[in-house]
């Protein structure tokens, strides 16, 4: 009874510590990266257009529809004040990271003990990419949470099965496990990269190989089937988009892996913290020496698969977030084993233990100087400039001609949406290929597909004017080529976002005579 009370107290203290680590730093009035702006822009459009989960602006809807369904629950709260959407999405991520304490603690405690479970939770908080992403809205955090809820339920099912639990209880747990894994995919389909943890969990429970394969296959197949069945019920979006295979080749093709090997590896190490990676490989060596193959098979495959998969598409380094829990668990296993070996040689174990812990934490914080920061660390000046430009565009007197805006457009358009619910946004496709597509087409040698990535625009209308936004306005050469090769926008007023070093485009760069608006 006392042991159970101590465990509950430990979990409560970890929840409090996690709350202190995330909530004071959660973004209050801005998304944390460009994808976040895209998601909020789509959420607003789904409300103003009356198309819940049906707006063509919902970024990645087909792979994250569970996330948008969750946000839509709060529609009565934010439909009259869209500015509330941003803190809602941000705090959902922070709360999800806080609740991660429970499944991580239970799972790690079952296989490696309570001390390792405490260490794993502490180390997870300190992983740069995990902590940073926990501060703003993104469905990857919830996908990881549901993944580990499912794994913890597998561990719990195995525990009660050994105590002859009833069949009904086991069936209910099976349903909950499949639901958790299904929700994991609904929040982010690429979370399937963590599904190697499912057979890893059964191996840790020492199931026979036949049962590991059969049980894992059933859980995975049911989760995938449920994902696609629910997806088939979503409203249709009439928007041309590439298939999964085309996207995989474009973003994750072998040519890009070779090209981005150095830069991608650097981003991976910085996202995870160099010291974590170093200790993780020491852990792998230690487990190999000890012949602990079960632990190796749990923590190693997921890290390798995610590293290889995201290597060609490493930016933002938030893509590597799925390795965070296994990285924390691997480091915790080694550090606990190291502490157990060192402490017996010290007379005052408490003082030595505290000293070692402080030194370790100090080293972690020092190593952060060469680690990952938030994807776009210029928010203070950038947000002010975006708001100023959005306000000026919104208040611009009526013009007969369209106004073509070259800017970091997604945040600016979102600010216009927040200023007025009457702002209408529509995606536009062009026939011109992006610079990135042209480069891939030129240098790809292993896998070649028909070029599909074209320059995307946004048509934005308010009560006074019709705007055309060039989404990736920071690509100077591409913008210049666009105006050179396209005649559709020769009759526009041109607006170029100022005060951002990366926007070096000036009106004289455009070969055509276009009216320039100085805003």
Automatic annotation (TrEMBL):
The leader peptide range reads none
Q: Which organism is it from?
A: Nostoc paludosum FACHB-159
Keyword presence, GTP-binding: no
What is the recorded name of this protein?
Glycosyltransferase RgtA/B/C/D-like domain-containing protein
Per UniProt, the keywords (alphabetical) are:
Membrane, Transmembrane, Transmembrane helix
Transmembrane portions of the chain: 7-25, 84-106, 111-131, 137-156, 168-189, 212-230, 267-288, 294-312, 319-339, 351-370
